[in-house]
Every structure is written in structure tokens, then in C-alpha cells.
Design goal:
Layout lengths: L6 H10 L16 E4 L2 E5 L12 H14 L7 H5 L2 H14 L3 E5 L2 H12 L5 E5 L4 H9 L3 E5 L4 H9 L7 E6 L11 H10 L3 E5 L13 H5 L7 E5 L9 E5 L1 H10 L1 H4 L6 H16 L2 H20 L10 E7 L1 H13 L2 E2 L1 E3 L9 E6 L6 H12 L13
Parallel strand pairs: 2-11, 4-5, 4-6, 6-7, 7-8
Antiparallel strand pairs: 1-2, 3-9, 8-9, 10-13, 12-13
Helix pairs in contact: 2-12, 4-12, 5-6, 7-8, 13-15
Length: 394
């Protein structure tokens, strides 16, 4: 007789460990000022880095396309779901990142799982940074390849792993560009050079860099190594403000993924209206470049203020600013206290982050004002921490 499932005991254990996750219901448009759970709050946990999710031009593009083409795509891209707007968006994305071609996916998670499984299998080797996003790590677990994780940004460890790869094996190295919980940036030029010297392919997940860094063209462009990244993935639901994802690369790669990436082949295509909205957002990256400039200014302002207050927020120069608290209970208490003060900042706990590194994941948006940032800093300065003191990420 099989063992019965006991969900309640598992849920109770999560509650006791301060790791139970709850959803808050948003009942307004996405934005830095929102109505969440019936309460008006200032949002400092969204990935809408440029404030485009509710931009009038993006919204109108979506509405106009929905009026003309309906709200569903009807099928997968390979059946009857590949709309002219999808094709136009793929061409615009490829041009944006300086690649020959791009391929749309329904989400970043689907893209990472599909690409990894298509590129490496049982006889191959996959190497990943230990702090990569869950979608990359899950792709590694599911693809069947010999999967190894090197220490976070440990290039010596990566080199040792690369040196151990047999010359008869394909090798793929996958890394985040901007790490989603700490906001630090991978040294892509050095990683690219290592991969090239050992005939390994490099895959970069630029979910938190595309649209923001490199004049909106992404982290590899910002670091001057775009040509050394043969497999580039980025999402369209963060800085672009809409949804979906894409993979960019040469013609052979894209054609191969169309034939072999199961999460592309067997998934209903994004609604054409979403593609129209993404195209409007891409145009705004240039038309309203001030958004990136304003975001950079806010990041610098927050960093200066945090250093003045002695807050342990690390050295991130991106829109992701983690306040390290250590204990799970401390992170939960801090998030709840800020909520009562009118600020929505999420508590991040294991297994999303390593044990002992629970934190507040503070994110900034181009739609925040200087006063918003100053008010948050004032609130953080008064933050009561009954379950532990902030500490650095040693």
C-alpha cells in the first residue's frame, strides 16, 4: 500500500519555519503606487524596472491589437499561432540585441527549460553558477546531462570544471547576467573567454538586464561581449513590462530550437496583442531613454542613503537592492512592518536564497520619485528588528 500524501503537515512545517508564502491581491494597475489587499501602498518589489507595464502607449498598442486580432493566438507557433506581430517582434528583438535571429517563448522559465533540454543531453556536460535562477537550475536537473554547479562567480571553479570535460562531450555553460536576488553582475567577458578557449557554448539569462543595461540592449552589450554569447535569453515581463521571453542567436541555433525545443513546439503562442505591446515598449526604450537615466540616479541615491544609515544592502549597482537580515523571521517581520507603514517590500527566504541569507528584496523603478526613495530610506532607518540584526553577505 502506498504512503498517503500529507499536505497539511508539510504546510504546518512551512508556517512554523516562517517560510509559508502568501499572495496579496492587486486590484489596480501595475505601478509604484498600487492598491494591494485593499490597501494603498508604494511598491518596492516589482520587476517593472522602467515603469512600462501601465504606460499609455503600451496599453493602447495592446488594446488596438486585441480589437483587430482578438485575445487568443489559437495554437502553437508551428500550427496556426504564429502571427505577423510575433514575427515582427522577433525581428525587432534580434535587431535590438545585435543577433541574426530571435525566437519567442511563452515565458523565461519555458525558454530556459526548452533551450537547455534541446542543446544538451545524456552524453553532454552542463555547468552553471550556483546562484542561477530556478529555471536554469531546473533545466539542468531535467535535461539528463552531467550537471555541475560551480561556486557563485567562481571562475577558477568554472575553469576546473571546463578542464575536466572530455573532448567527445558537448559542454554548455549557463549563467544569469544580473542575479535576481543580489543584483550583482556576472563577469561575462571573462566567462565568454573561458568558454571560447575550451570550445564550450555560453548561454546567458539576461532577464534582469535587458531593457535596462547597455542602453536597453542588454548586459552583454553593456560589457562589450555580445559576440561571445551564442545563446542569449531575456524576458519581456520585467523592464519591457509585458510578458513572454525570447532567445537570440544565429540562424542555425534558432532553426534548431524551432525543431527541438519542446517548450516552444508544444505551447500555445502568446496572444498577438502582447507582441504588439512589446513592440511599443521596445520603441519606448529609445523614445524615453530618460527612464534609464532616472533609474540610475535613483539607484545611486538609494545606495548613498543606505550607506549613510549603515544599512547592509551590498554593492549592487542595479535596480535590485537586497537588505540582508539573515533570519527568516526577521525578514518576515520587517516586510510586515513596512507594509503597515505603506511600503510593499517582499521578504525573500530559503529555498529562493541560501540558508541564513533571508532578506528584503528592494527593487527600484523609473516611476519612483526621489521622494519615494527618501521616504523608504526613512522607513528602513526606523525598522525594528526583534528577531535579529542586519548583517552583511559574508
Amino acid at each position: 500500500m502506498a504512503k498517503p500524501f500529507d499536505f497539511r503537515s508539510e504546510l504546518d512545517a512551512l508556517l512554523q519555519r516562517q517560510r509559508y508564502r502568501r499572495r496579496r491581491i492587486l486590484s489596480s494597475a501595475q505601478g509604484v503606487n498600487a492598491l494591494v489587499g485593499g490597501k494603498s501602498v508604494r511598491v518596492f518589489c516589482s520587476n517593472d524596472y522602467l515603469g512600462l507595464a501601465s504606460h499609455p502607449k503600451v496599453t493602447k498598442a495592446f488594446q488596438d491589437a486585441a480589437g483587430r486580432f482578438g485575445v487568443g493566438s489559437g495554437a502553437s507557433h508551428l500550427v496556426v499561432g504564429h502571427h505577423a506581430l510575433h514575427h515582427e517582434l522577433e525581428e525587432a528583438l534580434a535587431a535590438r540585441v545585435g543577433a541574426p535571429r530571435a525566437l519567442l517563448f511563452s515565458s523565461g522559465y519555458a525558454a530556459n527549460l526548452g533551450v537547455i533540454a534541446a542543446l544538451v543531453g545524456r552524453r553532454d556536460v552542463l555547468l552553471q553558477d550556483k546562484w542561477n535562477h530556478a529555471s536554469l537550475l531546473d533545466g539542468g536537473q531535467l535535461c539528463g546531462a552531467k550537471f555541475h554547479r560551480y561556486g557563485h562567480l567562481d571562475l577558477d571553479g568554472l575553469q576546473r570544471r571546463l578542464d575536466a570535460v572530455d573532448e567527445q562531450q558537448h559542454c554548455l555553460v549557463a549563467t544569469d547576467s544580473v542575479f535576481s536576488m543580489d543584483g550583482d553582475i556576472a563577469p561575462l567577458p571573462r566567462i565568454s573567454a573561458l568558454c571560447a578557449s575550451r570550445n564550450a557554448w555560453l548561454m546567458v539569462d539576461d532577464a534582469h538586464g535587458f531593457g535596462v543595461l547597455g542602453e536597453g540592449r542588454g548586459t552583454p552589450q553593456a560589457l562589450g561581449c555580445a559576440e561571445g554569447v551564442p545563446v542569449y535569453m531575456a524576458t519581456l515581463g520585467k523592464a519591457i513590462g509585458v510578458g513572454g521571453a525570447f532567445v537570440a542567436g544565429n540562424d542555425s541555433l534558432i532553426e534548431y530550437l524551432i525543431q527541438r525545443a519542446r517548450t516552444y513546439i508544444y505551447t500555445t503562442a502568446l496572444p498577438p496583442a502582447m507582441a504588439a505591446a512589446c513592440l511599443a515598449s521596445l520603441r519606448l526604450l529609445d523614445e524615453e531613454a530618460w527612464r534609464r537615466d532616472h533609474l540610475r540616479m535613483l539607484i545611486e541615491r538609494f545606495q548613498r542613503g543606505a550607506q549613510h544609515l549603515g544599512l547592509r544592502v551590498g554593492a549592487s549597482q542595479t535596480a535590485i537592492q537586497p537588505l540582508m537580515l539573515g533570519a527568516d523571521a526577521a525578514a518576515v517581520e520587517a516586510s510586515e512592518w513596512l507594509w503597515e507603514e505603506g511600503f510593499f517590500v517582499s521578504a525573500i527566504r530559503p529555498p529562493t536564497v541560501p540558508e541564513g541569507s533571508a532578506r528584503l528584496r528592494i527593487t527600484l523603478s523609473a516611476d519612483h520619485s526621489e521622494q519615494d526613495v527618501d521616504d523608504l530610506l526613512c522607513a528602513l532607518a526606523a525598522l525594528p528588528l526583534e528577531s535579529g540584526e542586519p548583517h552583511g553577505n559574508e
